[in-house]
UniProtKB/TrEMBL annotation:
<dbReference type="Pfam" id="PF07587">
    <property type="entry name" value="PSD1"/>
</dbReference>
<dbReference type="InterPro" id="IPR011444">
    <property type="entry name" value="DUF1549"/>
</dbReference>
<feature type="domain" description="DUF1553">
    <location>
        <begin position="310"/>
        <end position="436"/>
    </location>
</feature>
<dbReference type="InterPro" id="IPR022655">
    <property type="entry name" value="DUF1553"/>
</dbReference>
<dbReference type="Pfam" id="PF07583">
    <property type="entry name" value="PSCyt2"/>
</dbReference>
<protein>
    <recommendedName>
        <fullName>DUF1549 domain-containing protein</fullName>
    </recommendedName>
</protein>
<feature type="domain" description="DUF1549">
    <location>
        <begin position="50"/>
        <end position="228"/>
    </location>
</feature>
Length: 552
């Protein structure tokens, strides 16, 4: 493909987006103004609360909300948010041609029950737990097994409190990896546990009392005391080796850190477990003649501890009475779907960091408990709200719309981009649905587009991404005509090229082309006697456009 030949078409295509909102990073970002009205739908009570609270803020802030998103924009956004990829040509056409007034609700229910939803959630949480570059890669080398375990939990729609209990108790096959990552490092695990499950930052209290929050060293080491007795054991199981999490009956955490001597309890002095913001754990004393077994000589499972701190921590952390646990996951799910948490960032719940919509966050938190921590139910209500269904272009042009007066434009994550490229190009149909992309190609694409290492999807386009999109052999290979893929289907279709443009645009941008786009792309593709080259260049242009690479 010759990029120089193609610039005039790329410019013509870019000019078709009307009313575009521009956000600048290394790449230009265009989000279509989408203007159709929402289909009428019954409002669930909590959905009504969402829309009332959000719209009340617009009125208070004197903001004009964006227009409702088109059906095509909603379709693409729902697929990306719920299953992590764009819809196929057939899926897009079926939805857009459907005249059922309840089709959005039916679509959301269908996607939440789809196996791809479980896979997408497992990928998201794998990154939250371990990041792309884990601190202990040797310990997490079997994280694929944990991701499979996570996928099973999401497929079965295990309630969030039960899922976290399984992770912390680590009694099921494949569930131990969270503890494994922090083997013999209870302080590090304390930081991660509070950040991920409670949405709180506790790392400052590792060395000193927090300067403006009610977080002390005593709080930090009290939490670490619940984890200090855990031990990670690797054992052989058939031809494989698996991790086991065992717990001793004795052992205490010690004060460490630069300011430890200045605090109650001198450095090296044992500290009793203490619930965050609560009381010390009431723990029975061990018998005077108790002697810890020589665990190194034990080949079978260790005996259960006389008293399990791990069990008590799990019960407290996942309790509906815990002021942080439910609010943290509600805020995370909201951020995942709306582009920004009501508390931002999502792992900094504290009195000084006030929520943008405190009443709504409290209402959703209470409702989620009443729904027995049903993640799908929470996602369904958010995705079917009017607030979620706004267009991405409006009067407000800030990159992170705090008041949700328009949809936030977000780059696709590395996993979403790879999966969407496979769907759009028909890669799986060309090589077989059970075939996998070569690991070298997949790893390279993850390396290029997966640089954010915090699991939050933050992204800044740069030279590597630009070079990959323009010159990368992996993308070119996916586009090149092979039996069953998009290029091949378009080249072998007997319909007029004007009609074939429907498949081209629905497969890539999840929308029908405008009249102008249909005319210009048809003219360009047919300008060559053998249109394979110009067609592949056209596909490349759409796949590298901001309309494909961003969730809008």
């Amino acid at each position: 493909m010759q990029i120089a030949r193609f610039r005039h078409l790329e410019m013509a295509f870019a000019g078709q987006a009307k009313g575009i909102c521009m956000l600048v990073s290394c790449f230009c970002l265009a989000a279509l103004v989408l203007g159709s009205t929402l289909a009428g739908k019954e409002k669930a009570s909590i959905r009504g609360v969402i829309d009332r609270e959000i719209s009340a803020t617009w009125k208070k802030k004197e903001l004009k909300a964006a227009a409702p998103a088109t059906e095509a924009a909603f379709l693409r956004r729902a697929y990306l948010d719920l299953v992590g990829m764009v819809p196929t040509y057939a899926e897009a056409r079926a939805f857009l041609d459907d005249e059922d007034k309840d089709k959005r609700a039916k679509l959301v229910d269908q996607l939440l029950a789809d196996e791809r939803h479980a896979r997408h959630q497992a990928e998201i949480w794998d990154l939250i737990f371990f990041t792309r570059n884990p601190a202990n890669p040797s310990a997490t080398r079997k994280r694929g097994r944990f991701q499979e375990w996570l996928r099973k939990q999401f497929k079965e729609n295990v309630p969030w409190d039960a899922l976290v209990q399984k992770i912390l108790l680590a009694e099921e096959e494949g569930s131990a990896m969270f503890h494994v990552q922090y083997r013999n490092k209870p302080e590090d695990e304390t930081v991660a546990l509070n950040r991920i499950f409670l949405g709180t930052q506790l790392q400052c209290a590792r060395c000193h009392d927090h300067p403006y929050e009610e977080r002390t060293q005593r709080d930090f080491y009290g939490m670490a005391g619940f984890l200090v007795r855990l031990s990670v054991r690797e054992e052989k199981q058939g031809k494989d080796r698996v991790w086991r999490i065992e717990e001793k009956s004795s052992g205490e955490v010690l004060f460490t850190g630069a300011a430890a001597e200045a605090q109650p309890g001198q450095k090296g002095e044992p500290v009793s477990p203490k619930f965050l913001g609560g009381e010390e754990l009431q723990e029975p004393e061990l018998p005077e003649d108790f002697k810890e077994p020589d665990y190194k000589k034990l080949k079978e499972a260790w005996p259960k501890p006389v008293f399990s701190r791990k069990q008590k921590l799990t019960e407290w952390l996942t309790s509906a009475k815990n002021p942080f646990f439910t609010k943290a996951i509600v805020n995370r799910v909201w951020a995942q779907l709306m582009g920004r948490g009501m508390v931002h960032p999502v792992d900094d719940l504290n009195p000084e960091n006030e929520a943008s919509h405190p009443a709504l966050l409290e209402a959703l938190t209470q409702w989620f408990v009443e729904q027995k921590y049903d993640l799908r139910a929470l996602m369904r209500e958010i995705v079917l709200s009017d607030a979620y269904s706004l267009a991405s272009a409006g009067e407000d042009t800030t990159a992170f719309p705090k008041w949700y007066d328009r949809a936030r434009v977000r780059p696709l994550s590395a996993e979403e981009l790879i999966a969407s490229l496979r769907v759009a190009t028909g890669f799986d149909e060309a090589v077989g649905k059970d075939a996998k992309m070569p690991s070298s190609a997949s790893s390279y694409m993850l390396k290029i587009f997966g640089k954010p290492n915090d699991g939050q999807g933050r992204f800044q386009g740069g030279v590597d991404e630009h070079l990959f999109l323009n010159n990368g052999s992996q993308l070119r290979g996916m586009i090149r005509s092979k039996e069953g893929n998009l290029s091949h289907l378009l080249l072998n279709d007997e319909a007029p090229w004007e009609e074939r443009m429907d498949r081209l645009f629905l497969s890539t941008l999840t929308r029908y082309p405008t009249d102008s786009e249909r005319k210009k792309f048809t003219a360009y593709v047919t300008s060559n006697e053998k249109p394979q080259e110009t067609l592949e260049e056209s596909i490349w242009a759409l796949l590298t456009s901001s309309q494909f690479r961003f969730n809008h």
